[in-house]
Design brief:
By secondary structure, the protein is an all-alpha fold. 76% of the residues lie in helices and 0% in strands. It is built from 5 helices and no strands. It has helices spanning 2-7, 13-25, 32-53, 61-74, 77-95. The chain starts with a helix and ends with a helix. The model has no long low-confidence stretch (mean pLDDT 78).
């Protein structure tokens, strides 16, 4: 996504690319709910990257790297919420020693 953000400059291109990738690759997973939640994370990350890149905060490589790290963190949010719901907060904390 970061490489593509250098190429395309219009809003929505990266988010639509992630949506297409999710629809094609996440449907064939064995655990459908996990695949959908991971796909939802990808969509959120693509939308976050799209919003921050098009906010015209900067054109430097450092800005692109910070945006890429932020969108990489956003990917995990739906999965973390699902794990906290399934395991309870105490079980989730015990999962990460």
């Amino acid at each position: 996504m970061t490489t593509m953000s250098f190429i395309v400059t219009r809003f929505g291109r990266i988010a639509s690319m992630t949506l297409i990738a999710v629809l094609i690759t996440r449907i064939i997973r064995q655990q459908l709910i996990e695949g959908l939640l991971v796909g939802l994370g990808y969509i959120f990350a693509g939308l976050t990257l799209d919003l921050l890149i098009n906010a015209k905060g900067g054109e430097t490589l450092l800005y692109y790297m910070i945006v890429a790290i932020m969108s990489g963190i956003v990917v995990f949010i739906p999965w973390w919420i699902w794990k906290i719901y399934i395991l309870t907060p105490m079980g989730f904390l015990l999962l990460f020693p």
